[in-house]
């Protein structure tokens, strides 16, 4: 099969579009013909050697999420048959940038019927992360107010929609070029973080969600840390700051006010993926794919995600690339 792999850690130039063996499904696994693979900041961080380092020699296929069609099922797999449309997050943080991938059958979800594979591949990691952060860790309920930092990104734009669906008031931060996009998604209050201090607008917030991308460059990391430190002030007593990037630790005054901080993250869980697919098919949630590239242009995808300023998701199209336009 064709796959994008790397044999050493480094910049986007280590990514190679080359031949690789088709993986064999184990008894509990499904072989998926990948139609599209989502791109995440984690793919870049792992490629740079910042997380999950392997001993050399290795040949690693990046990619944590896919949408595709079941090609083969292991002997113990129940619930999926050859030809089923599936989507999901890959438990091994890799394997997605390829024509085929294997995944445990009980981790995959049924693809939303109203989406093509490119848009379905944009969902698993970001939607599972937003769900965990807002609802399971943040405990967001109807009538509460949530402040979402980086509301226009892969996680943020889905978090906005999930919070609105839950019945929350949503305050979202982004730069000016994303204002119309976020208002269209339903944010009640837009804050241009480049021109307005969010504390001057947001107050009595129940949940802060920090989704500001890290490790793009040193300046972004500084801004992210400062944003986290400043966010305690907008929370009402007893509120919570949830970060999908770092552990927020309340300062002494925040702790005295009963404020809490917690890290949240994506886990491959098919029951949540199936719920997300229902919300999509009911018209409550729609992924935005800002950039579609053919699989062989994974390097370009990594250069873009590295900027920390892309809108919605980047997706690599694996099947039907003749139609693909990068934009
Ligand atoms: N824990 C987990 O399981 C998990 C899962 C997914 C992602 N993550 C992490 O979460 C972070 C976000 O992921 P993502 O996929 O959403 O990233 P992304 O799509 O690359 O985020 C890009 C967005 O960030 C916005 N942004 C950048 N700096 C900002 C700032 N100072 N204030 C407000 N918005 C800002 C940009 O908006 P503008 O262009 O308007 O500036 C852009 O729309 C990454 O660090 C990723 O590694 C963790």
Question: Which key features would you list for this structure?
Answer:
327 residues, alpha/beta, Quinone Oxidoreductase, Chain A, domain 1, Rossmann fold, six-stranded parallel β-sheet, 9 helices, 15 strands, disordered C terminus, binds NADP nicotinamide-adenine-dinucleotide phosphate
Describe this structure in words.
This protein is of the alpha/beta class. It has two domains: 2-123 and 287-323, Alpha-Beta Complex (Quinone Oxidoreductase, Chain A, domain 1); 128-263, NAD(P)-binding Rossmann-like Domain (Rossmann fold), CATH 3.40.50. The protein has nine helices and 15 strands. Strands 3, 4, 5, 6, 7, 14 and 15 form a seven-stranded mixed beta sheet that branches. A six-stranded parallel beta sheet has the order 10-9-8-11-12-13, sandwiched between helices. α3 crosses α4. It is globular and about 55 Å long. Mean pLDDT is 96; it is low at 323-327. NADP nicotinamide-adenine-dinucleotide phosphate is lined by residues 40-42, 125-126, 129, 149-150, 152-156, 173-175, 178, 193, 211-214, 220, 223, 244-245, 265-266, 305, 308-311. The site of NADP nicotinamide-adenine-dinucleotide phosphate has 33 residues, from α1, α3, α4, β9 and α6.
């Amino acid at each position: 099969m064709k796959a994008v792999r790397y044999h050493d850690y480094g910049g986007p130039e280590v990514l190679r579009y080359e031949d690789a063996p088709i993986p064999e499904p184990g008894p509990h696994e499904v072989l998926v013909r990948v139609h599209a693979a989502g791109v995440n900041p984690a793919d870049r961080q792992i490629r740079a050697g910042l997380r999950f380092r392997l001993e050399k020699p290795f040949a690693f296929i990046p990619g944590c999420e896919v949408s595709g069609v079941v090609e083969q099922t292991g002997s113990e797999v129940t619930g999926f048959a050859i030809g089923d449309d599936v989507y999901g997050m890959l438990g091994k943080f890799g394997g997605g940038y390829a024509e085929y991938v294997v995944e445990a059958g009980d981790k995959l979800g049924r693809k939303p019927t109203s989406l093509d594979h490119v848009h379905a591949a944009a969902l698993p990691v970001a939607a599972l992360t937003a769900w965990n952060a807002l609802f399971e860790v943040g405990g967001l309920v109807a009538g509460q107010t949530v402040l979402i930092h980086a509301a226009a990104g892969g996680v943020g734009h889905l978090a906005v929609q999930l919070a609105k669906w839950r019945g929350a008031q949503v305050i979202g931060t982004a730069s000016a070029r994303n204002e119309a996009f976020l208002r269209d998604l339903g944010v009640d209050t837009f804050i241009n973080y480049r021109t307005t201090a969010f504390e001057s607008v947001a107050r009595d917030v129940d949940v802060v969600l920090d989704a500001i991308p890290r490790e793009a460059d040193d300046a972004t990391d500084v801004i992210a840390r400062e944003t986290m430190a400043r966010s305690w002030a907008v929370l009402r007593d007893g509120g919570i700051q949830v970060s999908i990037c770092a552990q927020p630790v309340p300062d002494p005054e925040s702790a005295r006010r009963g404020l809490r901080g917690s890290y949240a993250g994506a886990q491959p869980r098919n029951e949540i993926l199936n719920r997300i697919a229902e919300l999509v098919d009911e018209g409550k949630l729609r992924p935005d794919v800002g950039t579609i590239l053919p699989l062989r242009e994974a390097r370009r995808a990594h250069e873009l995600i590295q900027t920390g300023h892309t809108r919605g998701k980047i997706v690599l199209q694996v099947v039907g690339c003749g139609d693909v336009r990068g934009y």
